[in-house]
Structure formats: C-alpha cells, structure tokens
C-alpha cells in the first residue's frame, strides 16, 4: 500500500508538469483558436536555453532567464508569424505551427548537435527528501511540485482577480466588444501567447534535468498536450489542471501495476482460448497495462469526444 | 468571434478564391488527362535508370494518397491528423494477400490494390461512423486519437502488423499478368501509373458528383446545406469513406512497390507528412496535391542526397508557403489565370525574370551561408574543405564568406529594387480583375 | 509541374553521373543509416568511424587489388525502411556493390529482403549487405541469406555472455528484466529468461516487462517497481533516450545493484550518467579495454579523436568490417564480382591488428562473425579513451572468448 502513496506523488509530478504546458496552450487555443503544434517546441527551447545559461551562470539564473527568452521568442512568433497567417484561416495557422515545430527541432540540432545534453539537477537539490519503504523521493521532485503549484495559483490569481485577467477573460469570449471598449486586442493576444510559451519554457527548464534534454524531447511530449486540453475542456484552466492530473495518475498507475488483459477478460467471463498461440487475437490477450499506459489518454480523449464533445470542464463545443 | 462555435470550425477560408475548389461544368476537359497519361507513358524513357523510376513510383503513390487526403481537407474541410492509418491498413491487407500463396497465385498483381482500397474503406466506415458527426476540432482530435491508437496497436498486435519489422512478401508470386511477372521496377512503374490515372480520374469525377459538390457546401456552410435538405453528417461520411478507399489504394501500391509495410506506414509522422504535402501543393485545386507530392518527394529523397540539412530547408519552405502563399503552389500558379485569359501574361515575363533571378541567387547565397555555418560548426577538425554548388573552398577562409555574403546581399538588394516594377506590372496585367487575384502576393 | 520533376531528376542524375565519372576506380561502399532526425547522432558517428577506417586502414596503405581505393557514400535513411529501400536503389545506381547498415533491425530486415530479391532479379548488379550493428537473431537464422554478413554478435550471443557473468556472481538472487516493446526487447527478455533458468536455476526473475518504445516520458513508475521488487540486478536492451531515462530513474530511486545493458554508452549517454553510473552500469559488446593495450590502437584512437573531437570510437566492429572486406576483395581478386567476394568472406579467419589479436571467424553456416565478447563497466577513463569527452568510459570487467562459437542456427543458406 505504501507504493500507492509513492505512485500518487509520482503521478502528481507528471501531471503538474503536463499542466504547465497545457495551461498556456488552453489559453492560446481558446483565445485564438490555434492548435499550436509548436508548443512543446517552446518547452524544448526552455530546456536548451536553461542548459546553456546554467553552464555560465548556474541553474537558478537559467530558471529565471530562460523562460523570459522563450516568452519573448513566442511573442515574436505571434507578432510576425501567426498574426500574418491568422487572416488566411485556421488550417494555415496550424500548418504554420507545424512547420515551426519542424524548424525549431532542426535549429536546435543545428546549434547544439544531436546528442543528449548533460543538463543536471543543481547540487543543492540533489538529495533524497524522504523515502517511503525503500522508494526515495528526490528533493527535486518536491521542488517541481512547489514550482508548478505556485504557477497555478499565480495564474489563477491574475486571471480572476486582476484587471488584466478580466480583460483577457473578456477577450476570450467577446474580442470585438473588448476592442470596441478601447483595449488593444492584438496586444493581448501577443501577451497571452508570450506568457503561454514562457510557461512551456518553465516546464522545459525544470523537466530538462530529469526527463533528458535532447532534440526529440518535444516530439515525445507532442500531441499529449492537446489531448490534455481537449479532455479538460478548451479554455478552462481548472479543466487543464484536472485533465493533467488525471493523465498523470492514470499513466503512472497503469505502469506500476501489471494488469493483464487476460485477467480482465477472464474476470468478465470470457475464458482463455485453449490454442492461444495460434489465435489471431493472441497479442490482445497478452497485452499488459504498462504496454499501453501511454496510449490510455488517447482512448480517454476519443471516448470523451464521442460522449461529451466539450470536455470535462468546457462550456462550449471543442 | 461572436459565434465561437463557428469560429473554431476548421475550414479552408472560402472567402479566398485561391483556396476555393473551383466550380466548373460537369463536362471534363479531356486534354489535361490525355497529356498527363502520355507524360506518364514517356517518363521512364526520359529517366531510365532504376533509381529515377523508384523515385517516380514513390511520387505516384504519394500523389494518390495526397489526392485522397485532399478529398477531406480541400473538398470537405475536414482536417485529419491520422489519415496514414487508412493507407497503412490497406497496405497491410495487400501484404497479407501476397503472403497467402494459394490465393495470390490465382490473382493477377494489378488487381491487388483493390483489396487495399476495400480495407481502407472498411476501416474508414467504422471510424467515420463516430468521427464525422461534426467537423472542426472534434473531427481533428478524434482522427489524432484514432491514429495514435492504431499506430500503437501496430507494435502490440504482432499477428497482423508484424511488430516494428512489419511484414513483407514477394509480388512476383502472383499470377503472371499477360506474361509479366513484375520482376523489374519498370513493370511496377506502369502498374502504378495505371492506378494513378484511374484513381485520379475517379477522384476528379467524385468531386463533380452531387455528393462531391455537397461536400464543398458542407465545408463552407453546414447550416445552409442542412436547410437544403442534406445531412451534413452523411455528406462528410461519404467523403470520408471514399477518401479511405483511395488512401487504401495508395497503401496497396506501396506494398507492391516496396514489398514491405511497417509501422511507419501508419504512424502520426506519416499522417503529418501527408498534411504538409497536400498543403504545400495547395488544397484549393484538384491538381494542388499532385504538385505538392512531386515537390516533397524531390525534397525528401533528392535534396537529402545533397545535404543533411534537408529537413531544415523543408521547414523553411513550409513556413514561407503558409505565410506568403496560403493557396500553396497551385494557388500561386492559378493566380496567373486571369492575366493569361486577358492575354496580358506577356507583360509579366520581363519583370518576373528581373525579379526572380536575383531572388533565386539570393536564396542560393543564403543556403550557401547556412551550409558554410553548418560546416564550420560540425565538421571534423582539420577538415576545412567543403563543396557548395560544385565549388570547393576552405570554409575557414574569409574570402568565400565575403563572396557568399556579398552575392546574397547584392542579389536581395537588386530584387528589392525590382519589386515595385513587378508589382506595377502585376497590377497592370490584372487591371480589371485585380480583386480576384491574391493581392499581388508575388 | 512536369518541368519540376524533370529539373530535379536531371540535377540528381547529372550529379550521380559526375560522381561516377570522377571516381571510376573506387570500391564504393554505401553507408545507409540515419543522418538526420532523432537517431542522427549515432548514424553520423558511425559514418565518421567508417570514413576514418577506410582512409586509415585501407587507402593510406595503398588500397585493395591494384590500388583501388575505398570510398564511403553516405545515404540518409531517416531510420525509415521505406527511405532505406529508395536509397538502396540510388546507391546501386551510383555503382555501390557493398551496403553497410547497422541502426535498427527493422531497417536491416527490410534491406536484407530487398537485397535478396534485387540480387535474384538483377544478376548483373548484385550487392553484399555488411551489417555492422543490427542484432536481431533472425537475420542470421530464419531470415538469413547468402548476401548478408553480420559483424556484431547477435542479441542471444550477447545475452549468453551476460548470463555467464551473472551466473558467476552468487550475490545475484533476483533479476528484473525490462525492455522496449518490440522484437529486440522481446528477444532480449526471452533469451535472458531461458539462459538464466539453464545456468542459475536458483535465480528468480522478479519482473519481466515491456514498455512502449520511444514514447515513455517519465520512467519513475517503472523504476519504483524495480526497487520494490527487491531485485539484485536489472537486465535491459534499451537504447537511446529510453536507456538514459530508464537508467537515470532506476539510479535516482536508490537502486544499488548492477544494471546490465546492451547500449548504455556514447552519443551523450555516458556523459549524462556521469558519476552516477559508476559501478552500476554494465554493457556487453565486442572490442577492447580502454585505454587499449596496444600502442597502435591508442594511436588510431588518438588520430580519430583529433579529427573528430566530439566523436566516439564506440563501434570497434566497424574496423573489422572494413579490414575483412579489404581482405576478401584481395583474396577474391575482384571487387565487382560480389559472389566471389562473398565466398572469400564466408569462412574467413581474420586476425585483427587493432583490438584483439585473436582469431575471428566468419561462420559460413549463417554468416555470423564469431569473436570475443566483453562485459564493460562504466568507469572513470582518461581522455581520449573516454566517451563523450566526459572522463568516463568503458573498462573490461569480464570476457568470453570466442563467444557462442557453437550457438545453434536455423539458417539454411542458399548459395547461388
């Protein structure tokens, strides 16, 4: 049973990391209707910039500066790329971000080469915070939890309690009206895009040392971020949080317990065929939950889209 | 954005003529088809070595697949992130037919792609039954989810998909077709060319049927289509299953050409590639995907022989296309139709030459600079010699850099100087119909 | 639009023709491996080792036959079977008669079948496939053919060596097996289970599982299971980012036993493990100790590192491929009749001048090279014999001589 607690903590870390990416994306998506395929690429840029800065100035300066650079680049992409493409419609916008993701990956390889970067956890955090029956919880994971919770609270505060947040929320639903009231909506778009990508950058900075800093890191995360915001409901920060945690826990628990398809099928009354090794379906019978852990979110998304197209917390059609 | 539901609908922008599937009469002009058929017949005599034929086979397969994809994206306004699945499943079905010796021996090889088509269609019927209920993001995300699921299954369900090694067969075990055993690439080329003509023609005819026409209407305005008494859901469904059929044909031809199908035939990367190919060519015109498939195959297969940075150039090309020519390459070509119709195209020839040649030189200069930077950064120590554009020089020397930078800057400066002339000529050539052009984006 | 094909193809063809004209005398070896994309690091490092070996070991010594030089033609297959087959065709058209490839058994499977068919259908342009790294046992068993030669011990042979070492270590009572969910990962797991049962029936396999390949973002849950199972040792066939992620997670979660691997070195992995991998990571491979005992080998490595400071001399089998091919061409007296070269290559006894002085034997029954296999440990190693310039590298811990020389094969070789 101790393992359950350990898995809860691990799932929380995974989920919160996913949340930092999906929080920015869900704002961008709901505001501009852009499926930003390059969002995970900004996460990768965050990790690489932070690695480069950490060589010269140490980890903490990297944590401070790298997201800012990523945010500025993001805002630049919105201002000089997306805004231009926006007039052509949503498909060109999407292709734009698709091409951008491709280009960023190539650029990263161009500059840093194709190997894993030795981006390490800072020494101050490189110890075991506590252990639960032999399973150690590194201090760095605790640190990751704190950072992401702080970001969530900050974001929630800005969006619901401040004037800027109110304007952003209004611009989400009624951009024309907000513009008519004298607010600079394109500037708001640019700001939201910049902040969203900067959040992805933060995620990259703190995930780089544990999940590896390499040119494929954006692709690995890639579409799972979309899945998260679609499950949570577009434009909903709470939805993004719940979906992120849900995905974090589902995948962690599926990996931790060897649930076998054979047991499930036997459990619901289907008996194992006698000549299993000749059966066309032998591979389905042999499936275990760790094998399919990472595709469970996709199954969940398809089911949700069929039965509840606006997601868990969304209030409008996806 | 007062209506978020409509706003989030992913469609090509119908207000842009370059993106609109052009309406025409039901009669088909026979001439382009005859020319295309003759060209396909003659091609292997022009490029007669095996690698050229292999590349042309790959092109033809990509063309069929891209045309099938455009039945969704261009004609139906449905954005799919998992269309490789239908081509892949078609390919796997054909490979299983090839592997079942007794049956395959009674089957002439040219008939085989039909099995691929039927399997692709069958899968599309199942998936489409729930994914085509709405267009827009819901459709896009379901296609992504289903695509990921089936791609993941391909590694888990080894009995059908063969794991990551895929499954392979031998096309020559089929029943000889008029004495042809399809031992050589050239025989396969003609088989693929035949299917290319047949499927392209059928897909074109489909776009002229009432159902094909309604797909456009549903894409542009589903509500009005409903008022006309058409169920937009069923219209989408039909487009989807026909698209699945032709994707399956492409998959079957893939199986015949390569004699192996693997996980890469269904994964999301392949689905992404076909989206890029179609868009690069232009979703607004029937022949757009054809251009896209040809351009992309050259980029991927021929350019990658020349430089490791091919993917970088491909990325730049896509960004440039989407930013400056959202109608794709086909849209770019079709922009000139009004001028040609008015007989004023000749006015554009000289300004084009004076602008595009410096632009081309500038781009080549820029790519030379990129290659040189790459070489300086990543080549081995002491290896300072490099070759760009058939010129060999020392990449650590100042002179080549000065030349490359100089050429690039001068070329772009000349291009800038010439640009107003081109704009004026463009406006002049399209004087009466300027409103239908794409705003002189050239 | 028709014009664009014409232009592009003519350019490609003109280039291929011009290269053919300039190097008419060369023995062309097509290197088909990923040079762009996620696996490019391994591919490019392999290419450098091939180029360096051909230059230093063959061309600088006067080439083969009457001074014919080896020329390596690089082709980027983007680790895709489809692209590999296209590039194979281009390579053959450019006059390559020898194909080398190593990354991904999936690609190797596609290539070996395509080459078998090509050679049957085009007897005038037959080619040989020299596989330097794809370790799926099937390639020299049920899928073997006359044109394929493997220079790396296959995964069962490597597992036999690993289990020999494990069997001698009486501290190991429980073993956890984890790998990527595809043919290689499964082959490693099956071999480990059956060989452990044979050599040390008292060892308990406390975990045997597969995870999706290249899709796992966080290996912590797997690492938790390894730790809580009470395993004394871990066996994994993981490579690339999956190896690094799994290894780091297991070590971070407090696992202290040995981790036996196939590919936990080079391409950034050694550097990323750094101090944490010392006395924990083990790797099975051919080759020799670091620094190499022989002065000429040290010189060879120094020269390689001077030319490619970021490179790793990570695949010593590459020099075997080049040297054995050169010897076979000289013995056959021709570089163009690949059937003669293949006949010279099969059954060849070869004494390597660099790594080991022992005899290597290309087994004619299945075209599998028989050689010594070592288990290396991740240890501090001085430059330039370290990996990734990290100060850490591989030191021999255990050696099996002429490993698996009599391993059974199901190959039924059909000779032309």
Name the features.
heterotrimer; B: 442 residues; mainly alpha; ABC transporter involved in vitamin B12 uptake, BtuC; 2 domains; two-stranded antiparallel sheet; two-stranded antiparallel ribbon; 4 strands; 69% helix; 3% strand; disordered N terminus; disordered C terminus; C: 416 residues; alpha/beta; Rossmann fold; seven-stranded mixed beta sheet; five-stranded parallel beta sheet; 12 helices; 40% helix; transmembrane transporter activity (chain A); ABC_transp_permease (chain A); BCAA_transport_permease (chain A); cell membrane (chain A)
What does it look like?
The complex is a heterotrimer of chains A (318), B (442) and C (416). Chain A is an all-alpha fold and 318 residues long. Chain A has a single domain, classed as ABC transporter involved in vitamin B12 uptake, BtuC (Orthogonal Bundle), CATH 1.10.3470. Chain A has 15 helices and two strands. Chain A has helices at 2-32, 39-57, 59-86, 90-112, 139-161, 163-173, 175-180, 185-211, 217-221, 224-232, 237-256, 261-267, 282-286, 289-292, 296-307; strands at 128-132, 135-138. In chain B, 69% of the residues lie in helices and 3% in strands. Chain B contains 19 helices and four strands. In chain B, the strands form two sheets. In chain B, strands 1-2 form a two-stranded antiparallel ribbon. In chain B, strands 3-4 form a two-stranded antiparallel ribbon. The longest helix of chain B has 33 residues, at 346-378. The longest helix of chain C is centred in the N-terminal third of the chain and has 21 residues, at 2-22. With 416 residues, chain C is an alpha/beta fold. Chains in contact: A-B, A-C, B-C.
Estimate the strand proportion of chain C: 15-25%
How large is the count of helical segments of chain A? 15
> What proportion strand of chain A?
under 5%
H/E series of chain A = HHHHEEHHHHHHHHHHH
- Total count of strands of chain A: 2
Radius of gyration of chain C: 21 Å
Structural class of chain A: mainly alpha
What is the CATH T-level topology of chain A?
ABC transporter involved in vitamin B12 uptake, BtuC
Report the helical percentage of chain C: 25-40%
CATH class label of chain A: Mainly Alpha
How are the strands of the biggest sheet of chain C laid out side by side?
Answer: 7-6-8-9-10-14-15
Radius of gyration of chain A: 21 Å
Low-pLDDT parts of chain C are: 1-24
């Amino acid at each position: 049973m101790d393992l359950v607690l350990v898995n809860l903590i691990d799932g929380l870390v995974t989920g919160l990391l996913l949340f930092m990416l999906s929080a920015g994306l869900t704002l961008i998506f709901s505001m501009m209707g852009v499926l930003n395929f390059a969002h995970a690429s900004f996460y990768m840029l965050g990790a690489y910039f932070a690695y480069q800065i950490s060589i010269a100035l140490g980890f903490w300066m990297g944590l401070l500066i790298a997201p800012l650079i990523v945010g500025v680049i993001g805002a630049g992409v919105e201002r000089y790329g997306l805004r231009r493409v926006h007039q052509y419609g949503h498909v060109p916008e999407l292709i734009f971000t698709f091409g951008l993701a491709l280009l960023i990956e190539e650029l990263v390889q161009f500059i840093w080469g194709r190997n894993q970067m030795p981006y390490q956890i800072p020494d101050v955090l490189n110890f075991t915070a506590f252990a639960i029956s032999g399973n150690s919880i590194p201090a760095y994971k605790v640190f990751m939890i704190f950072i992401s919770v702080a970001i969530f609270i900050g974001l929630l505060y800005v969006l619901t309690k401040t004037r800027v947040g109110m304007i952003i929320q209004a611009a989400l639903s009624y951009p024309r009206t907000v513009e008519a009231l004298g607010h600079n909506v394109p500037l708001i778009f640019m700001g939201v895009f910049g902040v969203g990508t900067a959040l992805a950058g933060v995620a990259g900075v703190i995930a780089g040392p544990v999940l590896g800093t390499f040119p494929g890191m954006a692709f690995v995360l890639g579409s799972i971020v979309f899945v998260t915001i679609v499950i949570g409901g577009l434009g909903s920060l709470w939805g993004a949080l719940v979906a992120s945690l849900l995905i974090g826990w589902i995948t962690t628990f599926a990996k931790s317990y060897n649930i076998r398809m054979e047991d499930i099928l036997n459990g619901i009354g289907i008996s194992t065929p006698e000549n299993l090794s000749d059966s066309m379906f032998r591979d389905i019978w042999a499936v275990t939950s760790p094998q399919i852990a990472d595709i469970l979110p996709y199954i969940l998304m398809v089911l949700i889209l069929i039965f509840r197209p606006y997601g868990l917390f969304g209030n409008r059609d996806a | 954005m007062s209506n978020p539901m409509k706003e989030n609908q992913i469609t090509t922008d119908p207000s842009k003529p370059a993106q609109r599937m052009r309406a025409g009469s039901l009669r088909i002009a026979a001439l382009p088809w005859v020319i295309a058929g003759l060209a396909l017949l003659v091609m292997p005599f022009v490029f007669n070595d095996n690698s050229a034929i292999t590349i042309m086979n790959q092109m033809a397969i990509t063309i069929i697949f891209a045309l099938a994809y455009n039945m969704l994206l261009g004609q139906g306004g449905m954005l799919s992130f998992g269309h490789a699945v239908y081509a892949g499943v078609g390919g796997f079905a054909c490979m299983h037919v090839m592997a079942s010796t007794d049956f395959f021996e009674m089957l002439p090889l040219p008939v085989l792609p039909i099995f691929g088509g039927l399997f692709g269609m069958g899968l599309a019927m199942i998936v489409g039954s729930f994914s085509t209920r709405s267009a827009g993001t819901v459709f896009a995300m379901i296609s992504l989810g289903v695509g990921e699921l089936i791609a993941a299954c391909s590694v888990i369900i080894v009995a059908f998909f063969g794991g990551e090694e895929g499954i392979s067969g031998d096309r020559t075990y089929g029943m000889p077709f008029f004495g042809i055993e399809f031992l050589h690439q050239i025989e396969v080329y003609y088989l693929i060319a035949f299917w290319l003509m047949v499927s392209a023609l059928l897909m074109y005819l489909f776009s002229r049927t009432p159902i094909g026409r309604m797909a456009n209407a549903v894409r542009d305005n589903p509500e009005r289509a409903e008022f006309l008494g058409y169920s937009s859901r069923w219209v989408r469904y039909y487009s989807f299953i026909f698209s699945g059929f032709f994707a399956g044909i492409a998959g079957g031809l893939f199986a015949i050409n390569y004699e192996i199908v693997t996980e890469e035939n269904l994964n999301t990367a392949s689905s992404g590639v076909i989206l890029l190919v179609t868009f690069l060519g232009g979703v607004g015109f029937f022949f757009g995907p054809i251009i896209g498939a040809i351009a992309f195959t050259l980029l991927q297969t021929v350019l990658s022989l020349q430089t490791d940075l091919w993917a970088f150039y491909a990325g730049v090309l896509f960004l440039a296309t989407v930013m400056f020519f959202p109608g794709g390459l086909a849209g770019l070509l079709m922009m000139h139709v009004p001028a040609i119709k008015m007989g004023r195209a000749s006015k554009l020839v000289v300004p084009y030459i004076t602008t595009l040649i410096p632009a081309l030189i500038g781009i080549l200069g820029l790519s030379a600079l990129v290659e040189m930077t790459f070489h300086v950064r990543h080549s081995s120590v002491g290896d300072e010699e490099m070759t760009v554009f058939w010129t060999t020089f020392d990449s650590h020397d100042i002179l080549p850099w000065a030349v490359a930078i100089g050429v690039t800057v001068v070329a772009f400066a000349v291009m800038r100087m010439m640009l107003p002339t081109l704009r004026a000529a463009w406006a002049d050539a399209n004087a009466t119909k300027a409103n239908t052009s794409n705003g002189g984006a050239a | 639009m028709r014009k664009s094909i014409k232009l592009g193809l003519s350019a490609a063809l003109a280039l291929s023709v011009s290269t053919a004209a300039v190097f008419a005398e060369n023995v062309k070896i097509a290197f088909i491996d990923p040079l762009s994309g996620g696996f490019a690091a391994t591919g490019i490092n392999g290419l450098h080792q091939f180029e360096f070996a051909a230059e230093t070991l063959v061309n600088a010594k006067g080439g083969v036959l009457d001074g014919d030089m080896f020329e390596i033609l690089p082709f980027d297959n983007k680790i895709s079977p489809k692209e590999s087959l296209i590039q194979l065709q281009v390579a053959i058209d450019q006059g390559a008669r020898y194909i080398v490839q190593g990354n991904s058994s999936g690609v190797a499977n596609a290539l070996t079948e395509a080459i078998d068919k090509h050679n049957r259908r085009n007897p005038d342009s037959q080619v040989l496939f020299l596989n330097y790294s794809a370790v799926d046992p099937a390639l020299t068993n049920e899928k073997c053919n006359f044109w394929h030669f493997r220079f790396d011990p296959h995964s069962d042979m490597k597992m036999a060596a690993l289990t020999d070492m494990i069997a001698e270590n009486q501290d190991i009572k429980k073993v956890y097996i984890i790998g990527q969910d595809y043919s290689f990962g499964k082959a490693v797991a099956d071999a480990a289970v059956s060989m452990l049962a044979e050599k040390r029936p008292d060892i308990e396999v406390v975990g045997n599982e597969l995870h999706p390949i290249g899709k796992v973002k966080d290996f912590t849950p797997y690492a938790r299971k390894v730790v809580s199972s009470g395993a004394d040792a871990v066996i994994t066939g993981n490579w690339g980012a999956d190896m690094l992620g799994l290894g780091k997670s297991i070590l971070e979660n407090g696992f202290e036993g040995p981790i036996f691997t196939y590919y936990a070195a080079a391409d950034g992995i050694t550097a990323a493990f750094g101090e944490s991998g010392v006395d924990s990571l083990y790797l099975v491979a051919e080759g020799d100790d670091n620094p190499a005992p022989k002065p000429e080998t040290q010189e060879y490595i120094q020269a390689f590192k001077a030319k490619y400071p970021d490179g790793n001399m990570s695949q010593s089998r590459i020099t075997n491929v080049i040297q054995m091919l050169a010897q076979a061409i000289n013995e056959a007296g021709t570089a163009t009749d690949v059937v003669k070269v293949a006949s010279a290559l099969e059954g060849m006894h070869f004494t390597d001048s660099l790594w080991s002085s022992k005899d290597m034997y290309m087994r004619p029954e299945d075209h599998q090279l028989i050689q010594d296999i070592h288990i290396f440990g991740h240890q501090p190693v001085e430059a330039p014999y370290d990996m990734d310039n990290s100060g850490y590298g591989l030191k021999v811990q255990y050696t099996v001589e002429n490993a698996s020389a009599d391993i059974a094969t199901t190959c039924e070789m059909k000779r032309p």
